[in-house]
Amino acid sequence: MAQNIVVGADTPQSAYRQLVELHDRQPALNVRSSTSVAQQAYSTPLPIAYLASVLAGVNSDTTVYEPSAGHGALLLGSRPDMVTVNELNPTRAADLRLQGYTVTETDASRLTLEKLHDVVIMNPPFGTVEEAPKRPKQFRFGKFQTTQIDHAIALQGLEAMKPDGQAVLILGGKLGIDEDIRSERYNSRESRGFYYTLYQQFNVTDHFSILGNLYRKQGAGFPIDVIVINGRGKSERSLPAADVPRLYKTFDELGELLDDVLSQSERVGTTGERTDFHGTRASERNPVEPEPLSATAVPSPEMADGDVAGGGGSVIGGGDTPDAANDDSSLLDLPKQTDVTENTPHAQGDRGMADGVGAVPGVRERHYRHAAAISADLVSGAGGDGQQPDRGIAVHLQHAGRTAESGTVVGGDNQPDAALEQPKQLPYQPKSTARQLGTLVPTNMQTGVTQALLKLERQVGNLDAYVADKLAYGTPEEMHQHFSAEQVDAIALAVFNIERGAGMINGDQTGIGKGRFVGAMIRYANNTGRTPIFVTKDPPLYADMIRDLQDIGMPGFTPLVTDANLTLPLPDGRVLKTNSKEHHKLMQSLQESGHLGRYNAIFTTYSQLQTVKGQEPYRREFLRQFAPNSLVILDESHEAG
Question: Are 77 and 101 in contact (CB under 8 A)?
Answer without folding.
Answer: no
